[in-house]
Amino acid sequence: MSDAATGALWLVGDIGATNARFGLVSPAGDVAASHTFACADFATIGDALRAFFADLGDRARPRIGALAIAAAVTGDHIVMTNHPWSFSVSALRDELGFDRLIAINDFTAVALAVPRLTPADRTAIGGGEPVAGRPIAVLGPGSGLGASGLIPSGSTWTALTAEGGHATMPPITERENAVLTEMRRRFDHVSAERCLSGPGLVNLYNSLAAIDGVPSAGYTAAQITDPEMAVTDPLCGEATGMFCAMLGTVAGNLALTLGAHGGLYIAGGIVPRLGARFAESAFRERFEAKGRLRAYLAAIPTYVITHKLPAFLGCAAALAAP
């Protein structure tokens, strides 16, 4: 009898550089439990998982699971990009006593979640209408910058596992060019992630301060994007605005590359918190600003994912796949 028929629950995880979120979901993706742990509190991912199971108490432990992780997943051995954790998937499976455990890139999971989202799980930014059966692009700034896509394959979808966040960041304005020039003094490669992430916001702010010859206030990303900070320190507002505009440029590039007439979806922890400021920013203008291809981009809708745990949905979809 299948798990769906018996009511069995699956382990799912969304592991980034800062937080590890673990949960229990039904095969349909209904979340039955969710706990968040600070990655820095645990030496290994196994230790974090044991803490999650301890929090479940007497609840039956799952025997099947999927972990969405901020890392390049190319085989059994996983090394996180922005955190010291590394592990063998098969060894972790045996350590936990699981029958099946898989690991997928975190933005592969977000891409797999898109077909399971409802209209209430997303907010449209700008115009355009999705075309059924066409590729979908996914992008998301958080502790890093994730990128993926969905390619139609008959009646199902194939999710891409890629590292598009590490593509080179292009400047569009003179001010952006000055910022990237300043950043090149510190980094051997200024990728999109160096600008479009939590640490990227700090990089943008510090670079603007250096260009203007003023001392950096040492703000965190949360402080930089705080609307009240923009009043007391205009560089915070400029850094946030530049972040949104640069994200539009990178999103437009990804949509062009994939031919994403099914839409472009933005996930991650930063953009949803910007709320109306993101909709009012230069994001959509820069998304469409591709010269002769402006009309092509104008027809592609862009959405902010507002579902709190899209990677959980994607993990469930990966486990349910034949």
Task: Characterize the structure shown.
With 322 residues, the protein is an alpha/beta fold. Helices cover 38% and strands 21% of the residues. It has a six-stranded mixed beta sheet, with helices on both faces. Helix 5 (174-184) packs across helix 6 and helix 6 crosses helix 9 (234-258). It is globular. The two termini are 15 Å apart. The relative contact order is 0.16. The model has no long low-confidence stretch (mean pLDDT 94).
Q: Which properties best describe this structure?
A:
14 helices; 322 residues; five-stranded mixed sheet; alpha/beta; six-stranded mixed sheet; 38% helix
Strand content: 15-25%
Spatial ordering of strands, largest sheet:
8-13-12-9-10-11
Whole-number average pLDDT? 94
SSE pattern, N- to C-terminal: HEEEHEEEHEHEEEEHHHHHEHHHHEH
In short:
With 322 residues, this protein is α/β, with parallel strands linked by helices. The protein has helices at residues 3-6, 45-56, 89-96, 106-113, 174-184, 198-212, 221-224, 227-232, 234-258, 271-274, 276-279, 283-288, 294-298, 310-320; strands at 10-15, 19-25, 31-38, 64-69, 77-79, 86-88, 100-105, 122-125, 136-141, 145-153, 156-159, 264-266, 302-305. 38% of the residues lie in helices and 21% in strands.
How is the secondary structure organized here?
Layout: H1 3-6, E1 10-15, E2 19-25, E3 31-38, H2 45-56, E4 64-69, E5 77-79, E6 86-88, H3 89-96, E7 100-105, H4 106-113, E8 122-125, E9 136-141, E10 145-153, E11 156-159, H5 174-184, H6 198-212, H7 221-224, H8 227-232, H9 234-258, E12 264-266, H10 271-274, H11 276-279, H12 283-288, H13 294-298, E13 302-305, H14 310-320
Parallel strand pairs: 1-4, 4-7, 9-12, 12-13
Antiparallel strand pairs: 1-2, 2-3, 5-6, 8-13, 9-10, 10-11
Helix pairs in contact: 4-14, 5-6, 6-9
